[in-house]
Amino acid sequence: MNTLKLLLISALALLLISCNESSSSSNDTGEVNKTTVDASNPSKWAYFSFEKGETVEVSDEQTDEWDIAFKRMMIKTNSGTSGSGDGGVINFAPVEFDDVDSAPMGYYVVDDTCGIEAMHLSWSGNKALFDWYVMTGGMKAPHLDSKGYSYIVKNGDRYTKLKLDSYYDPETEVSGFITFTWKTGLEQSTEMVDNVMEASVTAPNEDEWVYFSFAEGEVLPLKDGEEPDGWDIAFQKYRMKTNSGVNHTISSDGENGYGVVMIETTDPFASIRTAPAEGYVVDSEIPDPQPGHAPYNGNSVLSQWLLAQAGPPQVKEDAVFFIKAEKYSYVKLKMTNYNYQSNEISFKFERYITAE
Q: Are 66 and 83 in contact (CB under 8 A)?
């Protein structure tokens, strides 16, 4: 049976709090607020200030007058490529909103170029907030449901916890109306948190691939016996492949997946903040490292994850891989252990990485 363990590596030593929901918009009360913002205009961003507790008109994004902005399902913050604020976001999934009572130190994700290839969209946004919803119904009749993740949004020395509740007007069910729960005025703690996740996948069968999604953080079930939609990396014993090259269906814009690049470093994994901009290798037919086995369609860069040596196989400890999962989406990956008897591969990864 495939096993998966997904967790935040840093200990989330957060005390429970007791909150009563309030419609108050005051920063100073420390109360929990629920707000609905009309973000239905596909041509205009709706800017929101946590300090003021309301939407604000913004003529120049390079100010500190706003904290977060919405346009349909797209979200950006006053940070990085979107604004001059000292901002960023930490995704606290799967920690519950009520269990977050302080803002940790750590690597807050700043805004960068985001995109949805199928819709030919790109914008400046925050990748930690990019996958806040699950879409069903396909592109012709899409329906968005919130994943209910908890976030902390930073702007300077102000910290706000946030949960995105709904994409639809609570009265009319019209789409593009973002309802969110939030509480500002959080104090910064001394806890250190990053966005590094940890997982283990068991793939013991010679004729079966096990598919993993970085966006979902889990193994995906087969779809009618075939490979599932939305997979990023797949495992078959010691073999690995990515959704690129010969293993990728060419999309409508002609792209053929984006591939993998590797660096060798002894730097702490969490401290590596950017991905290489070039050098990505897509999947192709490659030789199997085991004598007598036929070539297979895999990734030649990822095939370097094990040391070539006599005796039990060992993970190449200084290898850090970067997978360009989509045009604007980079994931860093490090294999941490391989149990060759059970074919269990353990690894850690971090989404939302920015390219150099």
A: yes
- Residue 19 pLDDT: 31
Give the pLDDT score at 327.
59
Answer yes or no: are the C-beta atoms of 205 and 2 closer than 8 Å.
no
Number of H helices, E strands in the chain: 0, 28
What pLDDT is recorded for position 12? 38
Closest CA to 100 of 153, 146, 49, 48: 153
Which residues on adjacent β-strands are paired with residue 211?
220, 234
What is the Cα–Cα distance from 254 to 281, expressed in whole angstroms?
17
Say how far apart CA 3 and CA 222 lie, in whole Å: 15
Mean pLDDT for each consecutive 10-residue tract of the chain (356 residues)?
38 32 43 93 93 88 88 90 84 79 80 71 81 79 87 88 92 92 85 79 93 88 86 94 85 65 93 88 93 93 87 90 78 94 93 74
Tokens describing residue 189? 């703690």
Please name which of 286, 272, 250, 253 lies closest in space to residue 332, comparing C-alpha atoms.
272
| Contact predicate 92/180, CB 8 Å | no
Tell me the C-alpha distance between 100 and 80, whole Å: 25
CA atoms within 13 A on the CB side of 180: 33
pTM, 2 dp: 0.66
How wide is the angle at C-alpha 143 spanned by C-alphas 153 and 160, nearest 5°? 10
> Given this model, what pLDDT does residue 44 score?
92
CB-CB contact of 70 with 90 (8 Å): no
Question: Which ranges of the chain would DSSP assign to H, the alpha helix?
Answer: none
Tokens at residue 115, please? 């995109």
